[in-house]
Amino acid sequence: MEETQPLSQSELPLCDSLIIWLQTFNTTAPCQDVKQLTNGVAMAQVLHQIDMAWFNESWLSRIKEDIGDNWRIKVSYINELLQLILGCAVNCEKKQEHIQNIMTLEESVQHVVMTAIQEVSCIMITYLKRALEELQEAQAEKEELRQRCQELDMQNEMMNEKLDHLFVSEKTNDGNNIINACFLYARLEAAKDDYRVHCEELEKQLIEFQHRNDELTSLAEETRALKDEIDVLRYGLSKYNYVTSELLRSHFSIPLFYQGFLEISLYRLEEKHEALLKEKERLIEQRDTLKETNEELRCSQVQQDHLNQTDTSATKSYENLAAEIMPVEYREVFIRLQHENKMLRLQQEGTENERIEELQEQLDQKHRKMNELETEQSKERIRELQQQIEDLQKSLQEQGSKSEGESVSNLKFYYGNSVAYGLSIIGPVQKISELEAALQKKDEDMKAMEERYKMYLEKQLAEKERRIEILESECKVAKFRDYEEKLIVSAWYNKSLAFQKLGMESRLVSGSGTCRDTGACAPARSFLAQQRHITSTRRNLSVKVPATTAD
Which stretches make up the Calponin-homology (CH) domain (predicted)? Predict the structure, then answer.
């Protein structure tokens, strides 16, 4: 025997709630799950408790407990039987007691049971309406037949009275009356024959109605058999839907995993991007400060150049003083550092370009390998799904052929004519064609979902590559700027040391000169103030030189 049919998601709460309601009757037979209800013993005991007059002990004794698995109940009738038992409970003499037992259950179970009661009430109302209509039609036919029988009885009585009257009148009347009576008798005999023929026709109609009733009963049995076949096909379809849903779930769980992995990597890249932006802002601030210091150095350099140009016409002592303030070694060191900076920058650009090209080639190779692996996996998955779909189609065809053979044997057993055989074949063939159309639609939906997934994956990969390129370019620029700033800082450090040395010497020279001129030393000044002071002293000295030469 086959296993129990897996109920759909919409039928599970109803079945579970009705099983919980059945447990309130405290039957001797177990009724904890659907499998324990398939033998029908627990449901029979519940019906006996509901109405002992109708479902009496003799009826209950006919329920067998050792029949094993009941295939017919397993396939489709668990919910219907439980709902019918519920309808019997709420319409019997003890319905108030049963309703109070229902009200003691949980709220969710009460809601489901009330919904089932409403459905059963609607079904019972429709069945009662149909039964009343059929009963009214049968009563109308019965009344019509009764009236016709009464008319025939009345006509028969009239004929008998006329015959009696004729027999009486034969004794008293003359020969003319006898002749008239003979004519009347002949006429009555003809009417009697007509009525006999009419009665025979009515009997034939009655026989035809009986045959028609037999045909209708056989058709009802045929519809019942077809309903069983439909239940079997519905069971196969539900199993197919369950298998396809599991396959689709397993097929799309891997893309969801890849999507989560891509989201995590994208989140990490965004964090790195934010850190790089913060580092970029810090470097921009540092660059601005270095620009300011560079401007100050340029101002000091311009002042030194101006001093060198003004000191060309001065005396040898002042030329020696300018040489001490701006030595030639500093200029040579500065030119050498600039040359080394340019060479290092060119060398760094060359190595960075080579490194970037190597990384780009490695990244392209990884992308190609990843795409090849993904395409191979997707093709293999598609082949597996196609094989599974073909297996399901074969199983459905075998099941359809099996059900078709059963229906043919049943129809041969009942009718034995080819017309009924053709009618029985049409239903399963239509079901199989509908199942094939549904299967084809499922395949199309699955292909469309795979195409959409590939399109989304390609978009994500393109976005990822674009973000990686942007981050690599920003990283390269940040490295170049970092290296350049390090060189600038080292040059600035060396230059500041040289300027400090030069400032110390100039401060000593200017301090000794001012002390000789004024007799008191000036207070300490900043670097730019000292440079301005040196420039002003040089101008004063250049103005005083012609007077000394004239003397």
Answer: 12-128
DSSP code, position 5 = P
Among 485, 486, 487, 500, smallest CA distance to 330 is for: 500
Question: Please, how many CA atoms are within 13 Å of residue 169, restricted to the half-sphere of its CB?
Answer: 16
pLDDT in tens, 235-258: 878 888 888 878 777 766 655 555
Count of residues making up the chain? 551
Q: Model confidence over 484-520: pLDDT tens digits? A: 888 888 888 888 888 888 888 887 887 655 545 544 4
What sign does the dihedral 482-486-491-497 (CA atoms) show? positive
Per-residue burial over 309-347, b if 16 or more Cβ lie within 10 Å, else e, is: ebbeebeeebeebbeebbeeebeeeeeeeeeeeeeeeee
Q: Could you tell me the CA-to-CA distances from 314 to 9, 306, 419, 509, 543 in Å, in that order? A: 107, 13, 136, 17, 10
Total Cβ atoms within 10 A of residue 130: 10
Q: Please, what CATH class does the domain formed by 12-143 belong to?
A: mainly alpha
487, containing H or E segment: helix 418-518
Contact between 284 and 477 under an 8 Å Cβ cutoff? The reply is no
Residue among 400, 70, 380 nearest 240 (CA): 400
Each residue's pLDDT tens digit, 1-32: 333 344 444 455 777 777 788 778 877 777 77
CB 424 within 8 A of CB 405: no
Q: HSE, CB side, 13 Å, CA atoms: give it for residue 451.
A: 6
Contact predicate 188/162, CB 8 Å:
yes
**Alpha-carbon torsion 435, 439, 441, 445, what sign?**
positive
